[in-house]
Amino acid sequence: MSHIASPRIIVALDYDRPEAALSLVDRLNPSDCRLKVGKELFAAGGPELVKTLVKRGFDVFLDLKYHDIPTTVAKACRAAAELGVWMLNVHALGGRKMMEAAKAALAESPDSPLLIAVTVLTSHSASDLEELGLPGTPEANVMRLAGLAKEAGLDGVVCSAREANALRRQFGEAFQLVTPGIRPVEASLDDQQRVMSPEEAIEAGSSYLVIGRPITQAADPQAALDAINHSIA
Questions:
Q1: Is residue 65 annotated as a catalytic residue, yes or no?
Q2: Catalytic residue among 36, 51, 65, 97, which?
Q3: By C-alpha distance, which of 127, 130, 105, 128 is closest to 115?
Q4: At 195, is the pLDDT very low, low, confident or very high (cuts 50, 70, 90)?
Q5: pTM for the full model?
Q6: Pairing relation of β-strands 34-38 and 9-12?
Q7: Helix, strand, or coil here: 36?
């Protein structure tokens, strides 16, 4: 399969050991995907692992969902940018001032990464949100928080693909929509509640698809990645 000019698949490195993540990465071509490093792997491998992935030619999405006082988040984002990451995120529930501080900090970087906001986790249902004091449907909360992120100058949001169509209509083509909870039709749902197939998510307006187990647990991860890329080409 020919390489992808601008890969839309972000492979989720959901591992607890750097060695396991690197073993998987050895089997993937950086021309065909990007990588996501979340809290568990970052806690195990730290900044050095991120630097290693960047040196291997991969675009890295650092998924740490920063949520703290504005000054602390701004400094954390500045430090993350120095690792050479392609994209990082904050949690929209941190508020406008926090998001604006994070964006301002990244503007000082010579190669400013994309900054997106987490809205509502794909594992959350309406009843989960009600328990947290957030009335309304997950979709309504996503729209409200995405609007706040847009006003704060962020590049986009993490969202369920089920909200992508409405977000795309509301915020335009330049707003990045990064969607986890993506499962090929033959895959299990695992712990996700609001899911779509890769083809459905792209059709709905997603910019990038975060996919973990269907690729990382495949007998041939590159072949699984190639198949998904082909399905959304």
A1: yes
A2: 65
A3: 105
A4: low
A5: 0.92
A6: parallel
A7: strand
